[in-house]
Design a protein that fits this description.
Strand content: under 5%
Order of helices and strands: HHHHHHHHHHHHHHHH
Largest sheet: none
Number of strands: 0
């Protein structure tokens, strides 16, 4: 038993470490933008944060697409069927390019309308329009890269994503500094410079992925012809298991965007403080989200191998681990809070809001860590993808958002109180998610 447990944690560590590094790198990119634009001014910081919600929604389409695909690919990987995985990769890529094209057109044609959904501050809207029209060039490129890397992750190929995002981080930070502040003779572009730096970083990511797919990956290849392949059974499976995940991510992402919009209509100070609080949340959750991703890979593969009892044992270990990581994440937020308030160029009002928001966020991440492992990891690995959708529709849209809207625009409560309501969804969802986990209804082998 000790040998088995040791092998389990060795396997988990090999998966979680690269995934956590990837999450940390992604947070590093966002943090660099916050720090640099925070030095430019509150409007620039708020504009990039709000305009970034457009890509945030698109990235959730990508993440839902690949998470849903991973439900299938992880189990087929355990079964050893790589040809089916290649078909799923091509199908996912086709959907991602189409989604990226739609969002690109929207960002080019109606950027001001998109910004007005998130704020009524005209100064922030003007800055955000400039940001959107530049960053839109990265949307399709991001989709191709993200889909490929996430599906490779479900096959235990996690190191390539770490390499890609490490190079991207360095590229992004350097170019952002040059374009935002006008270094080495370049004009100071402010918020547009942050967008331009990101576009170049996305191009670098794509180049590395193409080289890896062409030169290194011999097991699962991308075939252009598969983009036009028709497989009725696989398509049915894809929509059955991936469809609810895509809708789930959109429901969750739309809820997060709605929360951002609520804060956006409470003033630039609330927007700026929320931007910093969200980056702190991402920082505190890098390992926890890595564990959720590893949970999906390990349990999905184990079910595909026909070892259901072992999958259940692994699930219990992952859930316990996620609780301790959530507590650690809350402590990280409390430690970061005074540093952020001291060094960022925020107004006194925004600094005061941030202090309260960080306390609220500290309890939020504990519940989010456990819920993510159960819903994104355990349930999806077993093909139980519809439950997460119902959970987010009820807890987020039926609970937290409605209470937040009433608190903000009917009762006109103070910003910190509104924040408590809009971040209540993870606590509302926890008892239902835990009951589902204990019932073992999620444990299913979905391979053909």
């Amino acid at each position: 038993m000790k040998t088995e447990r040791k092998q389990f944690y060795k396997m988990v560590f090999a998966l979680v470490l690269p995934m956590a590094l990837q999450n940390l790198i992604n947070v590093g990119v966002t943090s660099a933008d916050v720090i640099m634009l925070g030095k430019v001014g509150e409007n620039a910081l708020s504009a990039s944060s709000l305009a970034g919600q457009v890509y945030f929604i698109l990235s959730l389409v990508y993440f839902g697409l690949t998470s849903g695909a991973a439900v299938i690919t992880a189990q087929y990987w355990g079964k050893g069927d790589t040809r089916t995985i290649e078909k799923i990769l091509a199908y996912s890529m086709r959907v991602a390019v189409l989604a990226g094209a739609v969002f690109t057109v929207l960002a080019w044609v109606i950027p001001a309308s998109l910004m007005r959904l998130l704020t009524n501050d005209e100064a922030i809207i003007r800055e955000g329009v400039g940001y959107l029209r530049v960053i839109a060039f990265s949307y399709i490129i991001s989709g191709i890269t993200l889909v490929y890397l996430n599906i490779m992750r479900s096959l235990e190929r996690v190191v390539i994503a770490t390499v890609v995002y490490s190079v991207s981080l360095v590229t992004n930070v350097i170019l952002n500094a040059i374009f935002i502040f006008g270094l080495f003779g370049c004009p100071a572009m402010g918020v547009k410079g942050a967008a331009l730096g990101t576009v170049f970083a996305r191009v670098v990511e794509l180049i590395i992925v193409l080289l890896y797919a062409w030169k290194k990956n011999k097991d699962v290849r991308f075939h252009v012809g598969d983009l036009f392949l028709k497989d009725k059974n696989l398509t049915r499976d894809f929509y059955t298991y991936a469809g609810p995940v895509i809708l789930n991510e959109l429901a969750w992402g739309g809820g997060m965007a709605m929360i951002t919009a609520i804060m956006g209509h409470l003033g630039s100070a609330a927007v700026a403080a929320n931007s910093v609080a969200q980056v702190s949340r991402q920082l505190s959750m890098v390992v926890a989200f890595g564990v959720a991703g590893a949970t999906a890979v390990v349990i999905g593969k184990t079910i595909g191998e026909g070892k259901e009892e072992l999958a259940d044992l692994y699930a219990r270990r992952f859930v316990r681990l996620s609780l301790w990581l959530g507590i650690a994440g809350g402590i990280v937020i409390l430690c970061v809070s005074p540093i952020a308030r001291q060094y960022l160029s925020l107004t006194d009002e925004a600094r005061d809001y941030l202090r309260y928001m960080m306390y609220i966020m500290a309890y939020f991440v504990v519940a989010q860590s456990v819920n993510s492992t159960m819903v994104v990891g355990v349930f999806r690995a077993g093909g139980d993808t519809k439950f997460g959708l119902v959970l987010d529709l009820a807890g987020l849209w039926g609970g937290a958002i409605i209470m937040g809207l009433i608190a903000a625009f009917v009762l006109h409560l103070p910003v910190p109180i509104v924040y408590i309501f809009v971040l209540s969804d993870e606590l509302l969802k926890f008892p239902f998610a835990y009951h589902r986990y204990r019932s073992k209804k999620w444990l299913k082998n979905i391979t053909r």
